[in-house]
Amino acid sequence: MADQNSYIDEGYIKFNCRKLDETIPTHDKLDQLIHWRREMYLKNWIGFDELYQVGFGNISISDDQGFIISGTQTGHLDQLEPMHFTSIVNYDVSANSVDCIGPLNASSETMTHAVIYENDPIEINAVIHIHNKSIWEKLMWRIPTTREDVPYGTPEMAQEIHRLFKEEQLAEKKILAMAGHEDGIITFGKTLKEAAHVLYQFEKAKF
Question: How many domains does the structure of the chain reveal?
């Protein structure tokens, strides 16, 4: 996993999260969200680092209002329930703000998920962010990779994601590595199953 400094930073929300309501999100695909988050947890791609006492990784799915994402600091839970998710109904990259509904604040990676959906709202309906050192080291710079000086969860990262879609064929690859967010990898797809299987394929890839 990442070094101590990376873990201290992990999970820290860098945007203004305005909670409009604490209603538990509902969605006809929430069961799929819970299922695939569990799969990522079992592989230790989403979870909790006992040494530094911080969670890592998150997962989301789009809906008519925006998208639903796992709440901040839920990595220690082996099984999530609807109460552990947050509905994102609005965001503003320039103002570095997010409006959400749910019992928990949105994940620290919410802004990154938002701009991925923004780039293709028809074909992208699910996003998975994991941490895995061996996959990250194998794939970095071989797949679309964010610059090392761009921190996660910031407007700068949002612009960097736009750059990868424009310059690095991210829409076709459906996977990116985060050079400035140690061990961080993001995949996406039309469904959570597709996003997960992109990960599985690159896990096995040989270069």
Answer: 1
